[in-house]
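Box S1 | Example of a co-folding query
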Amino acid sequence: MSERSEPSTTAPKARLLTGDRPTGPLHLGHLLGSLQSRVAMQDSHECFLIVADLHTLTTRPERERIAELPRNVRAIVLDLLSVGIDPSKSTIYLQSGVPAVYDLAILLQMLIPASHLRSLASIAQMAKIAGVDDERMSLGLLGYPVLQAADILMARAQLIPVGGDNLAHVEIAREVAQLFNEMYADVFPLPEGQASRVPMLPGIGPDGPAASKMSKSAGNTINLGDPAEVVAQKLRTLSGSRLRAFIDALFDDPAQAEAMSAEHRAGQLSDAAAHEQLIQATEALLAPLRERRAAFEADDGLIEEILVDGTIRAREVAYATLQQVREAMGLEPLWKGLIDVAERRALARKKPY
Ligand code: ATP
Ligand code: MG
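Box S1 (continued) | Returned holo structure for magnesium ion
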């Protein structure tokens, strides 16, 4: 047998970053669009999962909406644990608890043309769902992708698994990283977005502008924590092309999904029969989650402990990156230069005559 060196066990894993806005509990779109791949990559990657409360402020800055954050933040972490995210492998952290990210966002803002942001369909859709017209769009909502770039780049993340609505934002983060590296110094790995097999699960309920995407803010969700009878009732509201989109999303064997969709389109599979098959497939996914959720929910203080631990870890990473960025841009040398002179002067002043 030829001699072969063992693969190093200490080689750093590539970093992955993704996350959710604490605007409500996670839904089936998250599970199929993002959560399943997060769980699958926990061992191969160093995962950072952001609970993006600052991103929530972009459409919900009111006091009473901020008062909803503690409950929504808990709900997200509970959902993450119930799908199988393991906090000993993944860093789950609270975005607003990492102030170095805002510093970084300000610096990155200088490198992103505002016209890029104005042309993004994803921001227009978020504004529409939130009932914000063009006139009232805040700088924060327009700049959402800049803060998202700061989240990604602070972790020096390479892989960003997201739904279809967020792919354009990862592209912006990549462009900024590239520009930064060219202008100043090679600080950032170039992040890459990864769309899942289900980039945009539609919502349940009546047709309307928000129907094409299941969204927490649109009230058209099947939540991961919904009881079985609620899930069944919601699935029974589906018809037409949205029903077929659910078939494609839930049956991951493409041949089976294709055959069912074709039968439905041809009128050989009734809505009612399709609903029953969807209910079975969804239950197979959600039933184990409900059991795990109940166990984590009963463990008092667990969620808070996980978030605090994760946020402290994220802070360390963020400050280290910010330091490199300030160094590369010349801001740290500027500050150090001032301190050097001031220190020398202070020393001179104390010199005995
Ligand atoms: P909100 O309505 O508050 O924006 P949301 O339901 O869009 O909530 P986010 O927290 O914005 O959820 O998104 C978290 C991640 O899940 C993102 O990567 C997003 O692209 C993905 N995602 C959200 N909705 C869907 C969906 N319906 N299908 C697939 N992926 C989705
Ligand atoms: Mg969203």
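The longest helix spans residues 302-329. The chain has two domains: 14-201+301-332, 225-298.
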